[in-house]
Design brief:
The complex is a heterodimer. Chain A is of the alpha+beta class. Chain A contains five helices and seven strands, in the order ααβαββαββαββ. Chain A has a five-stranded mixed beta sheet with strand order 2-4-5-7-6. In chain A, strands 1-3 form a two-stranded antiparallel sheet. Classes of the chains: A alpha+beta, B alpha/beta. Chain A: It is an enzyme of class 2 (transferase).
């Protein structure tokens, strides 16, 4: 019995051992797995570390870049500050040179005003002795012509005619200098009516045979009296320089072009050489002698001055022996209601 | 002489201009009695019966005064101011004579009460015409209040 018991015990023990063995094997297998797992995790960590190292390097690099960039920005900033200062300096310089220009303009204006007031008072004071010369020559002619012979009368006539010319010249100069001082009063001007007035004034002061054509002229915004003066001068010229034609013809036209009103007076008179066109509008500039056509050389410079004051331009076209056309432009102010 | 009727009083310092003006009146058949005084001081003495003209009857007023603006010492504007400030003389028409119509004094003259002005033209014929026209106007058409 004892043996049997022993045997059972042994079997049991054996089974136990087998079980334990199995357990151990399981455990070993588990450990192998765990080990593999650990090995794997270890690998992962190493990878991660390597990645972190790379990321770190990257950050370090970026950091450096940022530092570099910051350094660059500081330089740029300094540059900007410098530029700003330069600009300030430049602005101050500009202000100063502007002041200089203003000062110069002021001086030019003063000098011009001085000259104008000088020419005004000279012309003004010249009238008095001239009036006396003319008046006494006239008295001499009226009271003593019976005792003067033909030559004496001719001398007297020369005195009178030259005193008269000088009077015209002085009046022209006065008009010219007045234009420098006088402001302009703009209103809407009916050019057709204005021309009629100018022509009636001209016809009253001298006789001529010119045919003068105009119709439907565009209205302008301008100083009436000054524009009257412009057309008086242009038309008197046109009549004068076409007076030797058999059929003098003068045409006044107007058109609207590029935001401007353009007026023209053309004649079929003696014309002029385009070579001298730049001299036409200068004071005392003449393209004809007084024997050919009498004039003071102030008329067109008055026209120029008036139109310039209206922010317009003057110009001329001509051909010797074939007539001339004088143009002037005025800003087209049809937006202004009157 | 001092109390003779004077219809035209010409106040002009330039003898030539005065001679021309007088001739212009005569030429225009304006033969009214005229006195020419050479400066503003004389003119004031004449009008107010003082100095050289002490005792002149100041009620004997000229029908028109022709007054040159540019005169030494007492100038035309001063004479005009005194004429227009005095009750007796302020109704006398005053025609101002000037060398050009650009004279800034013309405006002053009007504001001081001048009745008209003549620009002395260079041309004698023109001068004669304006003087005559104005003379006629003030002497004949325009009867000043008595």
């Amino acid at each position: 019995m004892a043996t049997r018991k022993k045997s059972v015990e042994l079997i049991n023990a054996n089974e136990e051992l087998a079980f334990q063995n199995e357990e151990k094997e399981k455990r070993a297998a588990e450990l192998v797995i765990a080990n593999k797992e650990l090995a794997f995790q270890n690998g992962e960590e190493e990878k991660r570390i390597a990645e972190l190292v790379i990321a770190n390097k990257e950050l370090a690099f970026q950091n450096e870049e940022k530092n570099k960039r910051a350094a660059e920005l500081i330089i740029t900033n300094k540059e900007l500050v410098f530029q700003k200062e330069e600009k300030k300096k430049r602005a101050v310089e500009l202000i100063n040179s502007n002041k200089e220009v203003d000062e110069l303009e002021k001086r030019v204006k003063e000098r011009t005003e001085d000259l104008e007031s000088f020419s005004y008072s000279v012309s003004h004071d010249l009238r008095t002795p001239l009036r006396v010369i003319n008046g006494y020559a006239n008295m001499l002619e009226e009271d003593y012509s019976s005792v003067l012979d033909a030559e004496g009368k001719r001398f007297l006539a020369e005195v009178r005619s030259n005193a008269k010319k000088m009077g015209v010249l002085i009046d022209d100069l006065l008009t010219f200098s007045r234009l420098g001082r006088q402001g302009i009063k703009k209103s809407r001007v009916d050019l057709n009516k204005l021309i009629e007035t100018v022509l009636s004034d001209i016809n009253q002061s001298f006789t001529h045979k010119a045919e003068i054509k105009f119709s439907n002229l565009l209205p302008a915004v301008a100083d009436y009296n000054l524009l009257h003066q412009v057309f008086t001068n242009l038309l008197s010229n046109a009549i004068k320089y076409s007076s030797k034609r058999e059929k003098p013809l003068i045409e006044i036209k107007s058109e609207r072009k590029n935001g401007e009103l353009i007026y023209s007076v053309s004649d079929n008179g003696v014309g002029f050489d385009m070579h001298y066109v730049h001299k036409l509008f200068g004071v005392f500039q003449r393209l004809h002698s007084n024997e050919e056509f009498y004039g003071t050389g102030v008329g067109l410079s008055i026209v120029h001055r008036i139109i310039h004051k209206h922010d317009g331009k003057v110009w001329a076209e001509g051909k010797e022996g074939e007539g001339a056309t004088f143009f002037f432009s005025l800003p087209d102010r049809n937006d202004i209601k009157h | 002489m001092e109390n003779a009727t004077v219809e035209i009083l010409l106040i002009e310092d330039n003898m030539n201009d005065a001679e021309l003006a007088i001739r212009a009146f005569r030429k225009g058949n304006i033969n009214n009695s005229l006195i020419h005084l050479k400066n503003g001081a004389d003119a004031l003495e004449f009008l107010f019966g003082t100095g050289k003209f002490e005792g002149r009857d100041i009620k004997n007023k000229p029908k028109v005064i022709l007054l040159d603006l540019k005169m030494p010492k007492v100038d035309g504007l001063e004479v005009l101011t005194k004429i227009k400030a005095n009750e007796v003389t302020k109704a006398i028409p005053v025609v101002v004579l000037t060398s050009s119509n650009e004279h800034p004094d013309i405006e002053r003259a009007y504001s001081l009460g001048a009745n008209s002005y003549i620009v002395k033209p260079v041309e004698f014929d023109e001068f004669a015409k304006v003087v005559t026209d104005l003379g006629f106007y003030w002497l004949l058409k325009n009867q000043p209040p008595v």
